[in-house]
Structure formats: C-alpha cells, structure tokens
C-alpha cells in the first residue's frame, strides 16, 4: 500500500533516536503499589516522550482496587510505562513502569524478564502495599533499591524504621525522592546503578 499525505506513517522523532555513542543498554523496572508515582517518575526522568498505557478509572474497579490515599486519581496504568535515559554517552537505561493494581500484576512476569535491577517506589501513607511487591522481587532474585516518594501529607520516618518495617537487609539502599523532579528521579537511578555495580564487584573473583 502506498502511504501518502495524511496516510503517511510518521517515523520516530529526531530526539527519540538512540545516541550513536551508546554501547550498552540496561533494562530497569520501576515497581510499586497503586498511586505511588511510577508513571510520574518515568515521565519526569525520560529523555524521550514516554509511552504510557493509562486508562480512565471506571466503576468496575470499585471494591476491587485499593486506592486509599489516591482517591483523586482518575487514570491508572493497565500495561506498562516506558522511557529511556542516558546515564553516560555509552550507557542507556530502558525504564519499564509496572501497573500498580493487583489485578494487573500478572503482567509483571514479562516485564521482569531481562531486568538487571528494580526501583521499589513506596508511599509512607500505605507501606503495607509494598510488602508483596518486595516479596515478588526477592522471589525472582531481582536486585532493587527502595525510593521513598515524598507526598505532602505523607508521614516521615527514620530510614532505620522504614528498613525494619519493610524487613530489608542492611545492604539494600533506601533513598528519599520526589518523583516529579527529574534530578531527584535520576538520583534514584544512579543509586540503583551504584548498587548493581557493587554487587557485581563483590561477585568478581579476586
């Protein structure tokens, strides 16, 4: 078929092209419960226009989805979010944000495939939704860091108390962040990359 005029299929935008200097790409997954800020983080830090699969929330989710603390949300991710960020000229991270509602968690298995590491985004108003998320990562052996997203009405706890409440090993980094801010989200990703590097170094024979 000959596509002409208004039927022409547009190609990728110039700013979406992978840098020619890129030599390595790493898949990172951003996980967490419903409404913790996963879509916001991917959107704030991605250097390309992020792909989102948000759909309007309907009455069908009433009584099924736990939206405590996020009652004002009108849309939710139903498949994934996708973005990209260049950490250096040679290293590129592909970011995959998972859906937060438990009824969509069956999609996580595919998103975890090939992931080098993960960011667990948490909301201190609803710490309990993070327990199963962390358990799933531990079951699959996916290294992760925990990012505490700062909500204006969210309680603040000492890092030691959060580590105890989430039953996290001492070596797992916990970092505070504001998922709306690019610099803050980038700091979270850099923390994860340093953690992954430390793990790889520790496994390398002397």
Can you put this structure into words, describing what you see?
- The structure is a single chain.
- This protein has 206 residues and is of the alpha/beta class.
- Helix content is 26%, strand content 21%.
- It is built from 5 helices and 8 strands; from the N terminus they run βαββββαβαβαβα.
- The protein has helices at residues 38-45, 108-112, 129-140, 159-165, 182-203; strands at 24-31, 54-56, 75-77, 81-86, 91-97, 117-122, 144-149, 174-177.
- Strands 4-5-1-6-7-8 form a 6-stranded mixed sheet, with helices on both faces. A two-stranded antiparallel sheet has the order 2-3.
- Helix 4 (159-165) links the parallel strand 7 and strand 8 (174-177).
- The longest helix is centred in the C-terminal third of the chain and has 22 residues, at 182-203.
- The radius of gyration is 18 Å and the shape is globular.
- 29% of the residues are buried.
- The model is unreliable at 61-65 (pLDDT under 50).
- Keywords: GTP-binding, Hydrolase, Nucleotide-binding.
- This is ATP/GTP-binding protein.
- Pfam families: ATP_bind_1.
- Belongs to the GPN-loop GTPase family.
- InterPro entries: Gliding_Motility_GTPase (IPR052705), Gpn (IPR004130), P-loop_NTPase (IPR027417).
């Amino acid at each position: 078929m000959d596509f002409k005029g208004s039927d022409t299929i547009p190609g990728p935008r110039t700013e979406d092209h992978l840098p020619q200097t890129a030599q390595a790409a790493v898949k990172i997954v951003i996980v967490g419960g419903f409404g913790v800020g996963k879509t916001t983080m991917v959107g704030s830090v991605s250097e390309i226009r992020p792909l989102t699969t948000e759909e309007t929330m309907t009455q069908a989710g009433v009584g099924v989805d736990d939206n405590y603390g996020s009652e004002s949300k009108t849309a939710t991710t139903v498949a994934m979010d996708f973005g990209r960020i260049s950490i250096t000229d040679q290293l590129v991270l592909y970011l995959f944000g998972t859906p937060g509602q438990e009824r969509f968690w069956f999609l996580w298995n595919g998103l975890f495939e090939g992931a080098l590491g993960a960011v667990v985004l948490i909301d201190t108003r609803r710490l309990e939704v993070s327990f199963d998320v962390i358990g799933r990562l531990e079951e699959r052996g996916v290294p992760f860091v925990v990012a505490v997203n700062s909500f204006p009405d969210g309680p603040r706890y000492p890092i030691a108390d959060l580590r105890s409440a989430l039953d996290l090993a001492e070596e797992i980094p916990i970092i505070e962040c504001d998922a709306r801010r690019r610099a803050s989200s980038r700091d979270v990703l850099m923390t994860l990359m340093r953690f992954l590097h430390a793990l790889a170094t520790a496994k390398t024979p002397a």
